[in-house]
Amino acid sequence: ETGVTQSPTHLIKTRGQQVTLRCSSQSGHNTVSWYQQALGQGPQFIFQYYREEENGRGNFPPRFSGLQFPNYSSELNVNALELDDSALYLCASGTGDSEQYFGPGTRLTVT
Amino acid sequence: GEDVEQSLFLSVREGDSSVINCTYTDSSSTYLYWYKQEPGAGLQLLTYIFSNMDMKQDQRLTVLLNKKDKHLSLRIADTQTGDSAIYFCAEALYGGSQGNLIFGKGTKLSVKP
After folding, report:
1. CB burial class (10 A; 0-12, 13-18, 19+) of residue B89?
2. Which of A75, A84, A2, A82 is nearest to A41 (CA)?
3. Beta strand B18-24 with B4-6: parallel, antiparallel or unpaired?
4. Which of A23, A98, A101, A109 to substitute to test the interface with B, most B CBs within 10 Å?
5. What is the DSSP string of chain A?
6. A99 vs B4, B45, B97: nearest CB
7. What is the pLDDT along chain B (113 residues), one digit of tens a residue?
């Protein structure tokens, strides 16, 4: 158990819709990162938040956005969903040093 | 650009040692990680090594780092059927946030009884 939880576990959306995924980090972890893992691939870095501000972004378009809250929770928002957005979305929290702990992920299916 | 390569499959017998290999391209890596992913689950941090170290041992796990060849390996001693999973190698880049991990595609380890 990493102490990182995500909700929902599974989600089905239609192309063009918007989705919000949630993550609850361990107490004391001030960084949260989001990753997209397509089937059969390794996770791809979307962005990181540190003390409620974006602190690094991967090669993802602006329709992927996020928020981090003072209570160690965070959100990933994706607008205008595309079929290729179907993936496992993972959040990871840490204290900004060497260790990051991943949640179980949210499986998003876009039809 | 940054790239992390792993072989896709490894099959071993229970009780044998497993060695999973990884190569990376960016010499400015700070930390290198091994994560384990079981079916339908998230990633479990197994171990990591700082880029100025050559070896790290943690119970059944031994990590070897060859900086000259940009080669990382994970050895699992006395492999058990519960070790069957996908193993990901990842690097964190110097100057980037620690959250920006570059992952390989994963090595699927199958352990036969």
Report:
1. buried
2. A84
3. antiparallel
4. A98
5. --S-EEE-SEEEE-TT--EEEEEEPPTT--EEEEEEE-TTS--EEEEEEETTEEEEE-S--TTEEEEE-TTSEEEEEE-S--GGG-EEEEEEEE-SSS-EEE---EEEEE-
6. B45
7. 568 999 999 999 999 999 999 999 877 778 899 999 998 888 999 999 988 889 999 999 999 999 889 999 999 999 999 999 999 999 987 544 556 889 999 999 999 99
Residue count of chain B, please give it: 113
Residues of B in contact with A58 (CB under 8 A): 100
Closest residue, chain B, to A91 (C-alpha) = B42
What are the φ/ψ torsions at residue A29 (nearest 5 degrees)? -85, 115
